[in-house]
Amino acid sequence: MTSDEGLATVGDLREALEISHEDGIDPEEFWDLSNEFAYNVYINWSDAEAPGCYDVVFQQVSPVPMPNRVLPIWGETRQVRPWSRQLVPQLRSFAKQILPDYMIPSAFVILEAIPLMPNGKVDRFALPVPDTARPELEEEFVAPRTPIEQVLAEIFAQVLEVDRVGVHDNFFELGGHSLLATQLIAQLFTRFEVEVTIVDLFKLPTVAGLAEYIEKMEGGDRQAEMLASSKHQSHNRETLALLKADAQLDSSIRPESLTQPTVKPSCIFLTGATGFIGAFLLYELLQQTDADVYCLVRANSPESAQNKLQNCLESYLLWQENFTNRIIPVIGDLSQPLLGLSQEQFHQLADKVDAIYHNGAWVHHSLPYSLLKNTNVQGTQEVLRLACQIKVKPFHFISATIGFSEVGDSGVKVIREQDSIDNGEVPIGGYVQSKWIAEKLVNTVRDRGLPVCIYRLGRISGHSQTGVFNANDFLYRLIMGCVQLGSIPDAEMIQNIIPVDYASQAIVHLSKQQSSWGKAFHLVHPHPVSSKLFFEKLRSLGYPIQKIPYEQWHAQLLNIAQNSPEHALYPLVSLLTKNNNSQAPTSDSVVLKFDCQNTLDGLKNTSITCPEIDDQLLNNYFSYLINNGFLAPPPVKETA
After folding, report:
1. Taking a C-beta distance cutoff of 8 angstroms, is the pair 487, 545 a contact?
2. How far is 270 from 291, CA to CA, in rounded Å?
């Protein structure tokens, strides 16, 4: 088939196959052939009793319309060599497209059949243990060449549970993911006393890359740092140029008509409805308006999408039966062009909805910008495209206060709601950068004539009355982890938290006022408190928590990273570095204070006020944590 003369008949094909590959035929070679010639190939496990055999069917493809001709290769079923080195990398690549990184299998095992029990269920005890051999990669194996590379290769092999690792092997292609990266990072610090983040690991995923970096760090070459989360990265010219290029909005995205937008929509489009803030936004939109709410959801069917939305609202104690007919799921994906919809579906949605609330984003503070770009930046662009098509729709963007840089003179720096986020400095971290660019895109379409409101949120806490909270929130995990650990770091962190019910009520109320168009609103607490208040409350409840120096506490954190992946603090290891020993202001630090006058003016003469962070609020929060099993009840004090 690969000759210039070609093969005209099935007999010619059979004869050619019999001449070559006397030891067996690799199935992937059939696929390769199908890519080069006018045949579709179908490969299935053979019904023959001989193990490792396949049935292969070639179907001729012709540019001339003609009846399908299936050309089976009859005769003796040939023994096929084991699947080649391409299969597992292809499976892993496919899994990365549809699964979050922590769900991607760390090992793949190829079986001719799944072992079953008499009742037809999988016999898990009969499944073979995954092979610890190094998986086949595109890179050829190169053994460690230096002492540092040798130590790194041993660490990689231990964490990934493989027998050997080459210096050019990619940590993530070997089965690594963010949870295993936490163990790797802890061991790197223990062995070399060098702090590496998950973002760094995405940039330097090989033994050779990390070894070079560690050698330069040990030699005092701090300019060698290539950390996306470092202060130096914000000054990196290439990164700055890339981010500015991504902040250029498609020139075709501008209001298409002169229709007058409305503040009383009958149909609303909401993204991120299955997230914590999104669920409360959905609830408030249903409470404060009469509109039907179209919710973008990733799902396989309308039924599963509807169930996903209902389950989310139920988990946050928000569901009401009368919501069923007003919540319309839209199956799609923020990371895809046209939100994963067909051109016709996108057009119909643009014609249907009257207002848009864009809250959806991939929130992950450890990942690099490159992985978050499609969802957080391109997704925002596609939602803006929807807002501008057919009729003008007010666009309400849920942003964050973290987009402002702390670079500048020491002291208190007041950020006003009308201030631009573009001060010449790129914020630190991939997630923050993605939100920064997304807001710049929104500002651009505002200048092109679209009615826009931007709501910059501070840290969101649980519901002020029920106490229900986001289980993945940093502060809650820190509290639960410190109780589990029995110690807290002797470091003060200022907590500017606002209850989620206040934030969602305020956003929806402000969005219903035409005077809000074109404005930004800061939703922050007017009276932030120290983290000490939370831990003092824990002690008053009877939890035996010891305050220890941060360096000692960080050592306990590293032990968790290496030995206790189930610990509440485990996901925070990469965010809590050794040098992060205090968030209290120092003589040369910048403290950002966010003015919220627009918000206060817009909420005048309403009952929507931000609850104080007092003993009553903390009682509600900790009662929910204890009653729902997130915190074990405090030990009962023995009486004399």
Report:
1. yes
2. 12
- 632/626 Cα distance (integer angstroms): 6
Phi-psi domain of 351 (left: phi exceeds 0; alpha: psi -120 through 50; beta: other): alpha
DSSP string covering 547-572, please? EE-HHHHHHHHHHHHHH-TTSTTGGG
Cβ-contact 332, 339 below 8 angstroms: yes
Element of type H or E holding 520: strand 520-523
80 pLDDT band (50/70/90 cuts)?
Answer: very low
Token code pair at residue 342: 């067909």
Q: Of how many residues is the chain composed? A: 640
179/40 Cα distance (integer angstroms): 40
Whether residue 277 contacts residue 501, with contact meaning beta carbons closer than 8 Å, is answered with: no
For residue 112, the one-letter residue type is E
Q: How far apart are CA 283 and CA 318, in angstroms?
A: 7
Contact status, residue 73 vs residue 56, Cβ threshold 8 Å: yes
Q: Is-contact 184 201, C-beta < 8 A?
A: yes
CB-based contact 194:214 (threshold 8 Å): yes
Report the candidate in 348, 313, 307 with the shortest Cα–Cα distance to residue 329.
307
User: Rounded to an integer, what distance in angstroms lies between the CA atom of residue 20 and that of residue 221?
Assistant: 56
CA angle 338, 339, 340 (to 5 degrees): 90
Domain boundaries, the chain: 10-72, 147-244, 267-627
- Going by their DSSP bridges, the two strands 54-60 and 39-45 should be labelled as antiparallel
| Integer Rg of the chain from CA | 29
DSSP 21-36: -TT---HHHHHHHHHH
Would you say 128 and 113 are in contact if contact means Cβ atoms under 8 Å apart? no
CB-side neighbour CA atoms (13 Å) of 405 = 20
Q: Of 330, 324, 325, which is closest to residue 301 (Cα–Cα)?
A: 330
Q: What is the pLDDT of residues 325-362, one digit of tens each?
A: 999 999 999 999 999 999 999 999 999 999 999 999 99
- Are both 147-244 and 267-627 of the same fold? no
159 burial (CB, 10 Å; 0-12 / 13-18 / 19+) is buried
Cβ atoms of 147 and 192 within 8 Å: the answer is no
Nearest Cα residue to 457 out of 281, 621, 316 = 281
Residue range 56-67, pLDDT digits in tens: 766 655 444 433
Q: What is the pLDDT, as a whole number, of residue 330?
A: 97
CATH architecture designation of domain 147-244: Orthogonal Bundle (1.10)
- Retrieve residue 373's tokens: 């770009």
Structure tokens at 286: 């249903």
Alpha-carbon gap, residue 631 to 542, rounded angstroms = 12
267-627, superfamily in CATH? NAD(P)-binding Rossmann-like Domain (3.40.50.720)
